[in-house]
Specification:
Strand order of the largest sheet: 2-8-7-6-5-3-4
Structural class: alpha/beta
Number of domains: 2
Low-confidence stretches: none
Strand content: 5-15%
Order of helices and strands: HEHHHEHEHEHEHEHEEHHHHEHEEEH
Number of helices: 15
Largest sheet: 7 strands, mixed
CATH architecture of the largest domain: 3-Layer(aba) Sandwich
CATH topology of the largest domain: Aspartate Aminotransferase, domain 2
CATH class of the largest domain: Alpha Beta
Radius of gyration: 21 Å
Number of strands: 12
CATH superfamily of the largest domain: Type I PLP-dependent aspartate aminotransferase-like (Major domain)
């Protein structure tokens, strides 16, 4: 097992002056993966036409085959997209012709903002209605999520998007229990796994979702602009990339492989990211981050005199915490607090308003250790003293 914490941090380009506790927003790419991407870019510029027509397709197939093995999916059932938002848009926009006035597009109140906007766009165009089931926060049990979802499905429910790991509240949803609630009623369900890839041991075949999308640039360590979309074979003829290009109606794979000229090196570098994870150990990485998240939130909650917002079994490598006194702050004040933590105390992490209360969300990566969260503790106590 690697010496995680400060020892391994040198394998990233992270600024030494910054206590980086926000891997969850955009990830952080290791040096090894950035070198691999640079090599791909050099090869691309040396012989552009051959690269785009011969080398890149071979490399992309290799990356997808390795990624498929990592996520429990056949290579022919997954494609690369630029981010999870792109994956959701490809599915929702492809399905929009099947939506009609009165249909319900289902999600929960913890849905990521971009996905909410995508559903509302589809509703605005088609006359369908977005239904968000309320998930309590703080939350006591994953059963509350299951019951809220189950009680919200109606005969009008046409499509559902469910988070695997919610973004601001950092909750791991029990999707193995949620997906069957839709499947047994023949309702297509999509899982937004933006944070799940790398953080959790995921398996497409076990889940049985109709659609699943996840970012490679967050917890999988790949470059920005890399994500995947899984589509069950029964839907593949109906799903198209948002950009329609030359390969329209050829095949599911070929349409997504070429949706216009772009830099494919982030996708090609997924192989290097997977090699990095193999080197440090996927299970070791997850165990370290999960245990660190539990230890850090315990220390911070005790120091700040606040309560846990979720049970341990809903925590991955992210944790959201109440601030001291759980202040009822505005978005403007929250932005000021974030900037002060960053600029004055060199602590980078999100400050979030949920309901009318303010929280912070910590990421726990292999390059973090408890000293980072003690720095945060001291900063917050100074601000709120």
């Amino acid at each position: 097992m690697h010496n995680f914490g400060k020892e391994i941090r040198k394998r990233w380009l992270l600024d030494d002056d910054v206590v980086f506790m926000n891997h969850g927003s955009f990830g952080a790419c290791p040096r090894d993966v950035l070198v691999a991407q640079s090599e791909w870019r050099t090869k691309m510029e040396q012989q552009l036409v051959k690269f785009m027509t011969v080398d890149a397709p071979i490399g992309l197939k290799d990356s997808l085959t390795k990624l498929g093995a990592f996520v429990g999916a056949k290579e022919q059932d997954i494609v690369f997209v630029e981010n999870a938002t792109s994956g959701v848009n490809a599915v929702v926009r492809s399905l929009m012709p099947t939506f009609k006035p009165g249909d319900e597009l289902f999600t929960t109140t913890h849905v990521y903002g971009a996905m909410r906007k995508t559903l509302h766009y589809a509703a605005d165009v088609t006359g369908a209605k977005v239904v968000e089931r309320t998930i309590p926060f703080p939350i006591q049990s994953a059963d509350q999520v299951v019951e809220a979802v189950k009680s919200g499905i109606t005969d009008k429910t046409k499509f559902a998007i469910i988070d695997h790991i919610t973004s601001p509240s950092a909750l791991v949803y029990p999707i193995e229990r949620i997906i069957p609630l839709f499947k047994e009623r023949g309702i297509p369900v999509m899982i937004d796994g933006a944070h799940a890839l790398g953080m959790l041991d995921i398996n497409m075949e076990k889940y049985g979702a109709d659609f699943y999308t996840g970012n490679c640039h967050k917890w999988l360590y790949a470059p920005k602009g890399s994500a995947f979309l899984y589509v069950d074979p029964k839907h593949q003829k109906s799903i198209h990339p948002t950009n329609i290009s030359h390969n329209y109606l050829t095949s599911f794979k070929s349409e997504f492989d070429w949706a216009g000229t772009h830099d494919p090196t982030a996708w090609l570098s997924v192989s290097a990211a997977l090699a990095f994870i193999k080197e440090i150990g996927a299970n070791e990485m997850r165990a370290y981050g999960h245990n660190l998240a539990l230890e850090a939130r315990k220390m911070l909650a005790k120091s700040w005199g606040t309560n846990f917002v979720a049970p341990e079994d809903m925590i991955g490598m992210l944790a959201t915490l109440e601030l001291p006194g759980n202040p009822k702050d505005t978005d403007k004040h929250t932005a000021t607090l974030h900037d002060r933590l960053r600029d004055e105390f060199h602590c980078e992490l999100p400050v979030i308003v949920l309901g009318d209360h303010t929280y912070v969300r910590i990421s726990c990566q292999v390059y973090n250790d408890m000293s980072d969260y003690h720095r945060l503790d001291a900063a917050v106590k100074k601000i709120y003293s």
